[in-house]
Amino acid sequence: MSGVRNVGVAMDFSTTSKYALQWALDNLADKGDHVVIIHVHSHQAETGQTQLWEKSGSPLVPLSELRQPNLSKQYDISPDPETLDMLDTATRQKELNVVAKIYWGDAREKLCEAVEDLQLDSLVMGSRGLGSLKRVFLGSVSNYVVTNVTCPVTVVKEPGFKP
């Protein structure tokens, strides 16, 4: 496939989302692609600055800024070293352009908005592996997103995971 693509990865820094990120970096992202880490806070924005971004999401945050200590205060996000190492390695090996965008609100709606706002060519997300009963009561973010976005979505489960 030629041309630069915009690949989104839904990321909550859980084991499942880290596995989905690694899958996307290993199997989907090609040299020169743009990879957007999308994080959605389920609570409302609390500070004045983040309240300004509550509807549209934060500005794009470059990978170099994800390591900054004030990032946690500014965006209420704390990427773990394992995730940052995965991204650093992929940027060096595949010459990827990695940025993050943070949203506040319902994950289902915000991930669908992100696909449109960021003009994503594909989206990768982890599966929590809810059983059928829990899925009925809690709803499935991945089911909602797969049904409502305009780009291909890959839902990645951890190997050996049984709901």
Work out the helicity level.
40-55%
* Major β-sheet annotation: 6 strands, mixed
Strand content range = 15-25%
Side by side, the strands of the main sheet go 3-4-2-1-5-6
Instruction: Give start-end ranges of low-pLDDT stretches.
Output: 130-139
| Count of beta strands | 6
What structural category arises from helix and sheet content?
Answer: alpha/beta
Shape: globular
Topology as a string of helices (H) and strands (E)? EHEHEHHHEHEHHE
Rg (C-alpha, Å)? 15 Å
Could you give the distance between the termini? 35 Å
**Helical run tally:** 8
Please, what is the average pLDDT? 84
Structure description:
- By secondary structure, the chain is an alpha/beta fold.
- It is built from eight helices and six strands, in the order βαβαβαααβαβααβ.
- It has a six-stranded mixed β-sheet, with helices on both faces.
- Strand 1 (6-10), helix 1 (15-27) and strand 2 (34-41) form a beta-alpha-beta unit.
- Helix 6 runs parallel beside helix 8 (141-148).
- The radius of gyration is 15 Å and the shape is globular.
Task: List the SSEs and their pairings.
Layout: E1 6-10, H1 15-27, E2 34-41, H2 48-52, E3 61-62, H3 63-66, H4 71-75, H5 81-94, E4 97-104, H6 107-117, E5 122-126, H7 132-138, H8 141-148, E6 153-156
Parallel strand pairs: 1-2, 1-5, 2-4, 5-6
Antiparallel strand pairs: 3-4
Please tag this protein with its features:
six-stranded mixed β-sheet, alpha/beta, 8 helices, globular, Rossmann-like_a/b/a_fold, UspA domain-containing protein, Universal_stress_UspA, 163 residues
